[in-house]
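Lab channel / #folding
Pinned by the channel admin:
"Please post every new chain as: sequence first, then the structure tokens as a reply. Keep commentary short and put observations after the output so the thread stays searchable."

First post following the new format, from NK:
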Amino acid sequence: MLLFRQFVNDDLGCAAYLVGDPEAGVAVVVDPPLAIEELLEAADEAGVRLERVLETHTHADHVSGHGRLALEHGLPVAIHPLAEAQFEHQAIADADVIGVGGVTVRVLHTPGHRPEHCSFVVDERIVLTGDSLFVGDAARPDLAVAAREGAEQLHASLSRLSELPPDVEVFPGHVAGSLCGGNMSTDRSSTIARERETNPSLAFRDVQEFVLVSASVSAPKPPTTARVVALNKGPWVARPAEPPELAAPGERTVLDVRDFHEHAAGHLPGAINVPLSGGSFGTKAGFVLEAGEPVVLHASSAEQAAEAANRLWAVGILELEGYVLEQPATETIGSVRPEELKALLEQPEVQVVDVRETTERDSGYLPGSRNIPYRLIRKLGCGALERERAVITICEGGARATNAASLLQREGFDVRPVAEGGIQDFADDVVAFRRCGA
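Reply from TO:
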């Protein structure tokens, strides 16, 4: 009898798994998140004892919970030797079979995303593909080695996975929303047969053709990648202490995690607004916070601050010195409706900044607008803009525009975002751009 549960972190698009034999009363955890509580509760409800942690690879987008499971529950951690893990671990290799009661877990070494990457075939009916084969897509090959080298390895690994029986169910390590792939389906599982028929990444027979496409990665690499990899390779990471409530933030960087309308009505001078309620909170915060800077959260409640802390810890942002609630929030920021911006476009005193990625802008942009992705504004955006002219930020739906506006306001710009709506409201006014070779 097989116990199988999938756990998805919607903020990061990461998936973890519980695999066990309820009759034998044992189970293993695959790719656990730092927040291990949900997995522990599921194991307790199923009446199984956790025996070990299996890692498909050294994760680059989230801090693993293997350290907490080792420190708090004494579980051994198993990973391929090429991970060069600096913590005590059990080595696994291709073709190893791990027994979990009467359930078998067969190891397939599937490098490409990372050299150590392994997939796990459960009872020859389910394959946990980690960061190799996704539903409708494949992993990016550029996070650990040169993109071409990773792509060549990934092509061989995908070919190997596609040779599994057609009725084998596919459960990936990531779902839509992750930066580890660009065109993932919103479905959280599939079958080998379906992926053979529909996944473009399995359609390449020529390895060089696959390499040309796969190595041309357009998605930005999260700036937290190196930090997260180091944490996951290094000594076990314990659960950080809860951030305390502070009377004031002092000179620390303030990350305002409240919704934009609250931020707009009143915020602390210099605060960066990344609403917790928006998608991919941890990833967005990672793009706009500088490595190692001390951070204080501005939240609406202690509960909101605790949730924000958990999501920031998940991406390796551990420098949280506390949170503030009731503050003399003296600074405000206005916003612009799409119809108002249409009337302002002809005015020379206004500069419009499109804060989407360049590849998004290619499909349609406002003539005369500048393109500075929101994630780059803190690093280089200010020098590209004229301080004496008002700034309006715009994106696809408003979330990145408001974030960018808070970054520019803290640098002294007179700025307003298109907070509700975006480029899609200007269908008749945009210009498309086709790149050579596209």
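NK: The longest helix spans residues 147-162.
TO: also worth noting, DSSP finds 13 helices and 22 strands in the chain.
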